[in-house]
Specification:
Helix content is 40%, strand content 21%. It is globular. The protein has helices at 58-64, 68-74, 78-90, 106-119, 135-145, 155-161, 172-190, and strands at residues 9-17, 27-36, 40-48, 99-103, 128-134. The protein starts with 8 loop residues before the first strand and ends with a helix. It has one domain (9-190): Ribonuclease H-like superfamily/Ribonuclease H (Nucleotidyltransferase, domain 5), CATH 3.30.420. Strands 3-2-1-4-5 form a 5-stranded mixed sheet. The protein contains 7 helices and 5 strands. With 194 residues, it is an alpha/beta fold.
């Protein structure tokens, strides 16, 4: 596939994790969706990460309904996951282009992915841009400007407000696809100015 330009593209990300602390809780899965202005989603995928031991809080277990046996059947070791992600990215972004990330409350996901890459000796900063687009921040902005009449900055509230249907909530792939749809609906809301 010939890639002519990538400046109109974003890589939306979402993760499922074993808790809120990337220093100790397991990164379970990564959902990716490449979005391009005026074209929408060009491709998407989900990657499940295998660990020798999973560190998962009771609250995270309840939220994502983690099933270790099922997870192990579809997961791969970290180095293979990173290699597959790199191949996926190469289909949509030019070589040596620092890929801009997007997502909801994205710093959470970035922190987990950075820790995951670091543990494998892979440089996050040589693949991804330090700039990221956060739908949470945009929702807060829309609320402050009065374009949205209530604070809907949590993803659940935002999906409900914009009537975004999520087929399997707390699946990294389903959540990332829903976040792209949310972003597109926010763009539609603001196309005539804020």
């Amino acid at each position: 596939m010939m890639i002519e330009k990538t400046e109109n593209r974003l890589l939306f990300i979402d993760t499922e994790t074993g808790g809120t602390n990337p220093q100790k809780h397991s990164l379970l899965s990564i959902g990716l969706a490449v979005w391009e202005k005026n074209k929408g989603i060009l491709g998407s995928n989900e990657y499940f990460i295998k660990h020798d031991k999973y560190v998962i809080t009771k609250e995270a277990q309840k939220i994502n309904q983690f099933d270790e046996e099922k997870h192990n059947k579809e997961s791969k070791i970290g180095k293979i996951v990173v290699s597959e992600i790199n191949s996926f990215i190469a289909n949509y972004f030019l070589p040596n282009y620092l890929v801009p990330l997007a997502g909801h409350n994205i710093q959470f996901d970035i922190n987990f992915i950075k820790k995951f890459y670091q543990g494998l000796g892979v440089s996050f900063n040589k693949i991804y841009s330090h700039r990221a687009l956060d739908t949470y921040s945009i929702l807060r902005y829309l609320f402050y400007t009065g374009k949205i009449d209530k604070d809907i900055s949590s993803s659940s509230k935002a999906f409900t407000y914009f009537n975004v249907k999520v087929s399997h909530r707390h699946s990294a792939l389903c959540d990332v696809l829903a976040t792209v749809e949310l972003f597109e609906k926010m763009l539609e809301l603001t196309k005539n100015g804020v």
